[in-house]
Each structure stands twice: as structure tokens, then as C-alpha cells.
Amino acid sequence: MLPIHELPDRLETERFVLRSWLPGDGPALREALLPSYAHLEPWMPWADPDPEPDELAMRVRTFRADWLTGTNFVVAVFDPTETRVLGGTGFHTRDSPYARGDAEVGMWIASPEAGKGLGQAVLRSMLDWGFGTWGWRRLEWRCDAENTTSMRVAERCGLVHEATLRGCWRHKTRGDVEVFALTADQWRS
Ligand SMILES: CC(C)(COP(=O)(O)OP(=O)(O)OC[C@H]1O[C@@H](n2cnc3c(N)ncnc32)[C@H](O)[C@@H]1OP(=O)(O)O)[C@@H](O)C(=O)NCCC(=O)NCCS
């Protein structure tokens, strides 16, 4: 793993920019979330039909602070001009210290952009960036067993289905959770 002070802050591709959220990103985040509520609400516990601007301003600051202290790495997906938020992803360390090298990749794509292959492109970039540059040892993808789009994205990107966790509390109900993962060795081969 890279030392925290040497971690990259951004990755640019032709289709999108992946970068740390920064102070000032709140309005762009709100613009992406507002039309996406119905799309996100079944799967994302934090979905809110009318998020408060002040709360979002604080949220992006917290994301930045977490990044700088190596607590959690929440990644914004911007268009190439960095004016429009296309979605969000991240390397979420959950309860594991960063230096151990285990993280879960999360993702949401704003509804106008969903279903166009963007989620798969972002996940492929996160895997290549995560294993190739950051040095993660194991990256997981967890989703509700009913979230067929999310499972499809994981499979298409080469993540290996490892387990079904039965009867987990996920959002509003108990249900099965599918665990997909890739280790650095699997990614290299
Ligand atoms: C899940 C999500 C991140 C995927 O991003 P996306 O940009 O929509 O995904 P893509 O367009 O790259 O790929 C979607 C794939 O699922 C397939 N798909 C879509 N709906 C499907 C369904 N009901 N059943 C089976 N496959 C489905 C698509 O055909 C496509 O696969 P293909 O390329 O083989 O045709 C996005 O839809 C999203 O934000 N969903 C709401 C939040 C969420 O569920 N996040 C993930 C939590 S684990």
C-alpha cells in the first residue's frame, strides 16, 4: 500500500474523472442526486428526495477529511470538464485499517447516466487504479441479491462471486447479500 501522504487524488479517463470530493462540490452533487432519488432509493440507505444544501456541503467536506486521514476514500465521478457529477464510488475501508489493504468498492450512477455502460467502465477503472496504483490487496463488491443490475456489473467486470450472506439487514428489510471480490493476485493474472 502507498503511504497515505502519497495517495493519488484523481484519475482522468476520456469519459470521466474519478477524484476525491472537495469543498464546493455540494451543489454539483445535489444536482445529480435530485433526479436520481427513485433510482437510488431501493438500494442506497442515504437516498433523500430533497437533500439540504448545507448538509451536502458538510458531507463533501467530511469525505475530503476522511480521505486525507486515510479513514475512507469516497470518490466522485465527474464528467471530463468536472462540472457535472455522473455518480459516486469509493474504496470503503469499513472497519479495516487502510494499511491492511482490504476495501469494498461502492457505487451509484445518476439516473440520467445509468444503463449506458458507465457503471462497468467506472468499476473497471476502480479495479485497475485500485490494484495498480493504490496497492489494495483485496477489493469487494457487495449487493442485495435482488439488485440484478449491480450483480451484472460485478460479473461483467470479472469479480468473482464468493458468497451469499443470508438474511442480512441491508436497508429497510432483511435479505440476502451477494459478495463478489477480486484479490490483487487474481487481478494480475
Ligand atoms: C448499479 C449501477 C451502479 C450500475 O451502473 P450502470 O451504469 O447503470 O450499469 P451499466 O450500464 O454499466 O451496466 C448495467 C448492466 O446490467 C444489465 N441490467 C440492467 N438491468 C438488468 C436487470 N433487471 N436484470 C439483469 N441485468 C440487468 C444491463 O444490461 C447491463 O449489462 P450488459 O452490459 O451485459 O448489457 C447503477 O445502475 C445504480 O446506480 N443503481 C442504483 C444504485 C445501486 O444499486 N448501486 C449499487 C449498490 S451495490
Structure description:
An 8-stranded mixed sheet has the order 1-2-3-4-5-6-8-7, sandwiched between helices. It is 32% helix and 30% strand. The chain has 189 residues and is an alpha+beta fold. It has one domain (4-137): 3-Layer(aba) Sandwich (Aminopeptidase). Helix 1 (26-33) packs across helix 3 (53-69). Bound molecules: coenzyme A. Residues 39-40, 43-44, 107-109, 114-120, 143, 147-150, 152-153, 156 line the site of coenzyme A.
Rounded to the nearest angstrom, the distance between the terminal CA atoms is 19 Å
Tell me the name of the CATH class.
Alpha Beta
CATH fold-level topology: Aminopeptidase
Overall number of strands: 8
Which ions, cofactors or small ligands are bound in this entry? coenzyme A
| Low-confidence spans | none
Q: Give the ordered list of helices and strands.
A: EEHHHEEEHEHEEH
What structural category arises from helix and sheet content?
A: alpha+beta
Question: What structural keywords apply?
Answer:
189 residues, alpha+beta, Aminopeptidase, eight-stranded mixed beta sheet, binds coenzyme A
Helix and strand topology:
Layout: E1 10-12, E2 17-20, H1 26-33, H2 37-40, H3 53-69, E3 73-78, E4 85-92, E5 102-109, H4 118-134, E6 138-144, H5 148-156, E7 160-169, E8 174-183, H6 184-188
Parallel strand pairs: 5-6
Antiparallel strand pairs: 1-2, 2-3, 3-4, 4-5, 6-8, 7-8
Bound molecules: coenzyme A (COA).
Brief overview:
By secondary structure, this protein is of the alpha+beta class. Helices cover 32% and strands 30% of the residues. It has one domain: Gcn5-related N-acetyltransferase (GNAT) (Aminopeptidase, 3-Layer(aba) Sandwich), CATH 3.40.630.
